[in-house]
Specification:
This protein has 153 residues and is an alpha+beta fold.
């Protein structure tokens, strides 16, 4: 077991946020939701049309960041419960529907000795190339099969 997770969220596009700051906004929201002790965006990219999903009128922004987080409020029991997680995040902006689709792939790279994951995780990622390739494939192949999910009616 490797304790990785993959999440897709449909969120209302935040008002007044230009594309340039949207990625930071969503990453910081995620860090807040995770009660991250530390977090940072390590690299950013505006995905070129040749590598983005086959959707019209969307902009795709991606980043790789890290967060130091504890699961299940474990930090209250042990200062060693924090894990370092590399987070691949994509924001697929769909202005026509005022929706940001957030795609995240979370990959632990360091497990704290006081974390419940310490007894379950067989190995952590040391080479993130495969994880990055998987994430890029997920983003490129993203499709919306039912646009009514994004309708405000």
């Amino acid at each position: 077991m490797n304790d990785r997770s993959f999440v897709i969220e449909l969120l209302e596009m935040p008002a007044g946020f230009p594309d340039e700051v949207t990625l930071d906004y969503h990453f910081e929201q995620l860090a807040s939701d995770n009660e991250a002790k530390e977090f940072a965006i390590l690299e950013r990219e505006v995905v070129p049309d040749t590598h983005k999903p086959d959707l019209s009128d969307v902009k795709v922004l991606t980043a790789v960041g890290s967060q130091t987080i504890a699961k299940f409020n474990e930090s209250e029991k042990s200062a060693d419960a924090y894990n370092t997680v590399v987070i691949f995040i994509a924001v697929v902006r769909i202005p026509k529907h005022m929706t940001d689709v957030i795609i995240t792939l979370n990959c632990p790279v360091k497990i704290g000795s006081g974390s419940s994951s310490a007894v379950m995780v067989e190995h952590v990622a040391t080479n993130l190339t495969e994880v990055r390739d998987t994430f890029q494939h997920i983003v490129r192949s993203f499709k919306v099969h039912d646009w009514s999910l994004l309708s405000s009616q």
